[in-house]
Write the structure tokens for this entry.
Amino acid sequence: MNLAISNSAMQGFLIEDEVFASLVLPNAPLELLAEGFRWLEGPVWFADHQLLLFSDIPNDRIMRWTEAGVSTFRAPSHFSNGQTRDRQGRLITCSHQNRNVTRTEIDGATSVLADQFEGRKLNSPNDVVVKSDGSVWFTDPHYGINTDYEGGKQLAELPPCVYRLDPSGHLSIAADEFEGPNGLCFSPDESLLYITESGPQFAVEPHRVIRVFDVSADGTALGEGRDFHKISPGFADGIRCDEAGRIWSSAADGVHCIAPDGKLLGKILVPQTVSNLCFGGRNRSRLFICAGQRLFAITTNTRGCAAP
Ligand code: MG
């Protein structure tokens, strides 16, 4: 049921469940922070510097936003996409063009964490998350090497998969049932891993499903996957979890908030397709939203879970 779409005090939100009315603030509107990009992805918050990094993929650069404005953090970025931080605070970045996942060390040097599996090149790592045990989990669909726009046409050597990189450097397949694995995030207690299935890039009908997997007790593997929620309109790209275990997902009409039981609670309406998002700002209650050519933010009444 749509409770408040016509209520001007809550303009800009679609409330499907009254829980959502307590998660957004009627006097905290969607703010346009910056525009003039091509296609944004990969937002990651640095609380220690009060700054946001995000990828402008077709422009081959990583941007930096602070309250003082926007500047270039890295160019060329080798068509970087998803980003996160590890538990030491180091930047972890997926690159389409270089077909790898890198870590930016404290001194600014970059190291390659993964670029092949069993002797074959990774496709185009898309999004990444680090678990508290230091393992790095990332998706590897074909999207980034299907076109020149997002990293240059290259031949895929591996099927689309989700990988887990052990802290020792061993890479293993975590899930292989996806046609286009995309965003991913853990539940606050890391007992669940959510992964979005966007399907093949040029399909007339995109897949729209967020899948969820039980994480094994030792934290190294996934159990059987199951459908968690079907996004509409559009499809789910990047996702983040808040401190209560709710999923905040990108969609064609904005950001959707989904309860841990899979029920849609409400939407933050955004006038452009949303590709990715992350919590940040003071207290992790500000949601940064990558939407096509523009970067938005909105302050919520919840907080992102402690992991980046
Ligand atoms: Mg993505």
Observations:
- Residues 1-9 have pLDDT under 50 and may be disordered.
